[in-house]
């Protein structure tokens, strides 16, 4: 990796490309090497320029962000940070992108034209620097993962256990991998704290349940822990356990 972290910025909005690029170039350790305004252009530039990091909008014309991500992870694994809107559709697409290999994501607070996006400058820079240290490998298809890393029914563990997982940048992908490799019959309850914006943790819980087969939910105050279930701390909260009886 060169002295500066090389970043490719991908967004169909000129305003967003400028805001993100200005935030990156203002840091002496980062450098925007190019920009792309659609998915096709993004894929070509990623394969040609080999950036250290890519920030990419989920919703792109010609070729959507997730399709670009999947192609990149098959051909030339790259650290990609997704950018998405605070909507149900944007949230679901972001979780799907994390499942497909994105290392992290940035949520637009209230739409592309909102000046609130300027508040994300520190987050953009911080996440890029953290992502640059993440090891990236060629990503298998979800079908391969489900076949090779699925629950193993030979490893039954009879002792009750509490499994606690905490993660930040790069965490969602790792958590999904861990949860889908949980052995069938593991006598444990799972507590997960993953740094995510408000509105994303509920969808993340749904994705964990769908992909791993482990019943999962966004934790609520007063929840009673159930064996074999995963509880994900809501955005902005930590978890506190209290023994009863």
Question: What are its keywords?
Answer:
245 residues, alpha/beta, Rossmann fold, 2 domains, 5-stranded parallel beta sheet, 4-stranded parallel beta sheet, 8 helices
Commentary on this structure:
- The protein has 2 domains: 5-131, Response regulator (Rossmann fold); 142-232, Methylesterase CheB, C-terminal domain (Rossmann fold, 3-Layer(aba) Sandwich).
- The chain has a 5-stranded parallel beta sheet, sandwiched between helices. A 4-stranded parallel beta sheet has the order 6-7-9-8, covered by helices on one side.
- It has 245 residues and is of the alpha/beta class.
- The longest helix is centred in the middle third of the chain and has 13 residues, at 88-100.
- The radius of gyration is 19 Å and the shape is elongated.
- Helix content is 36%, strand content 21%.
- The model is unreliable at 139-159 (pLDDT under 50).
How many structural domains are formed by the residues? 2
Report the CATH superfamily of the largest domain: Response regulator
The count of strands amounts to 9
Intertermini distance: 56 Å
> What fraction of residues sit in β-strands?
15-25%
Over the alpha carbons, how many angstroms does the gyration radius reach? 19 Å
Q: Architecture of the largest domain, CATH level 2?
A: 3-Layer(aba) Sandwich
Profile the largest sheet. Answer: 5 strands, parallel
Mean pLDDT: 82
**Structure classification:** alpha/beta
């Amino acid at each position: 990796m060169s002295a500066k972290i090389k970043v490719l910025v991908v967004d169909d909005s000129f305003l967003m490309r400028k805001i993100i690029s200005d935030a990156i170039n203002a840091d002496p350790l980062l450098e925007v090497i190019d920009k792309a305004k659609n998915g096709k252009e993004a894929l070509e530039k990623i394969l040609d320029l080999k950036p250290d990091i890519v920030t990419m909008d989920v919703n792109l014309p010609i070729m959507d962000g997730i399709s670009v991500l999947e192609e990149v992870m098959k051909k030339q694994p790259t650290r990609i940070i997704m950018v998405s809107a605070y909507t149900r559709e944007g949230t679901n697409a972001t979780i799907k992108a994390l499942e497909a290999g994105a290392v992290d994501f940035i949520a637009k607070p209230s739409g592309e034209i909102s000046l609130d996006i300027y508040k994300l400058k520190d987050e953009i820079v911080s996440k890029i620097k953290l992502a640059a240290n993440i090891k990236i490998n060629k990503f298998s298809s979800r079908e391969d993962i489900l076949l090779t890393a699925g629950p193993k029914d030979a490893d039954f563990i009879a002792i009750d256990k509490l499994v606690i997982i905490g993660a930040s940048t790069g965490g969602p992908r790792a958590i999904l991998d861990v949860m889908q490799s949980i052995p069938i019959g593991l006598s444990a309850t799972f507590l997960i704290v993953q740094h995510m914006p408000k509105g994303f943790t509920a969808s993340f819980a749904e994705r964990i349940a769908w992909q791993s087969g482990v019943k999962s939910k966004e934790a609520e105050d007063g929840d009673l822990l159930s064996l074999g279930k995963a509880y994900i701390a809501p955005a902005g909260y930590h978890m506190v356990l209290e023994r009863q009886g």
